[in-house]
Write a structure and sequence with these properties.
single chain, 2% strand, 71% helix, mainly alpha, ABC transporter involved in vitamin B12 uptake, BtuC, two-stranded antiparallel ribbon, globular, 308 residues
């Protein structure tokens, strides 16, 4: 691509990479944003993402319908989120420790149950061609997107609107800001956080379905590459704002696309170094946001209290 288009090849390849690589980051960060808005953190999203990818691929392969696979992924994510939410509502259960346990549980189950899915080819989600106007095959290939991308963008806008203008959003935010105020108004903290965690798991698992049913469009043990773990950094970077989750997903997707874009341009010597860009970016964000003045700007008060 890059050689035929000259200097425009690399930015075009990065743009195409953003369109293909950012949706999983977007869905996982939105799921985690909803969970943390209620005052709970879920470090098990990596397991949810991987389990969602395996479930979507398996159901799509068995049924021939990729959309049934997407629904199956969401259902599995909801179940994992429900387990996390229920255990966290028990006395003396630590969110962080349980999240790590749920991450290993999700990954272990996915790798065990998905052993027979590495070779078969499941039905894939169709792409939408945004480059129909161009006669350049490179541009056409770069501007292909999946319908889940606009769904994720719309979901971010809906969540932002709901948090600001709906009773449901107010209840979730209140649970994250003040346990005492929520109880004084007659709301059950455990119920609110349970539902937020379960629905957050549903949303995050859709990102896994994108991985296995669109890009890269297969199932293997290394399909996630830690994107679920990066969700926590994305939400902090986004300051718990769903709209900002879009920008964060684009930045992380672009960081992940740099390596393949440079490789396509012929700079293969730096491929492995550039492939580490998302992880370096995660560390940089965590270091910057750990300052005393910025660490908890925009964070739900109850979330900060539980982690300090």
């Amino acid at each position: 691509m890059s050689q035929s288009l000259g200097y425009w090849g690399v930015p075009l390849a990065v743009l195409g990479g953003i369109l293909r690589l950012s949706p999983p980051f977007l869905f996982v960060s939105l799921g985690e944003c909803l969970t943390e808005k209620s005052g709970r953190i879920n470090l098990g999203q990596e397991g949810t993402l991987v389990m969602g990818a395996m479930s979507a691929y398996g159901i799509s392969y068995l049924s021939g319908s990729p959309w049934l696979g997407v629904l199956a992924a969401g259902a599995v994510g909801f179940i994992l989120g429900s387990i996390h939410g229920w255990f966290c509502s028990r006395p003396r259960v630590n969110d962080i420790a349980l999240g790590i346990a749920m991450m290993f549980l999700g990954e272990g189950l996915a790798f065990y149950l998905g052993r027979g899915l590495i070779q078969p080819q499941a039905a894939q989600l169709a792409s939408v061609n945004l480059g129909w106007w161009s006669h350049q095959p490179e541009i056409v290939a770069a501007l292909k997107i999946n319908i889940l991308l606009p769904v994720g963008l719309a979901l971010a806008v809906i969540m932002w609107w709901a948090f600001r203008y709906t009773r449901w959003g107010m209840i979730v935010r209140l649970a994250g800001e003040s346990t005492d105020a929520s109880r004084a108004m007659g709301y059950s903290i455990n119920t609110i956080r349970f539902l937020a965690t379960a629905i957050g798991g549903f949303i995050a698992a859709i990102g896994g379905a994108f991985l296995s049913l669109y890009y890269p469009g297969s199932w293997n043990d290394n399909i996630s590459s830690g994107q679920g773990l990066m969700a926590v950094a994305l939400v902090i970077f986004a300051r718990w704002n769903p709209i900002n989750c879009i920008y964060a997903a684009v930045i992380f997707g672009g960081a992940k696309a740099i390596g393949p874009a440079l490789q396509a341009a012929g700079y293969s010597s730096y491929t492995y170094l550039m492939n580490a860009a998302p992880y370096v970016l995660t560390m940089v964000i965590m270091i910057i946001t750990c300052s005393r003045t910025r660490a908890w700007v925009g964070a739900p008060a109850e979330l900060g209290a539980s982690l300090r």
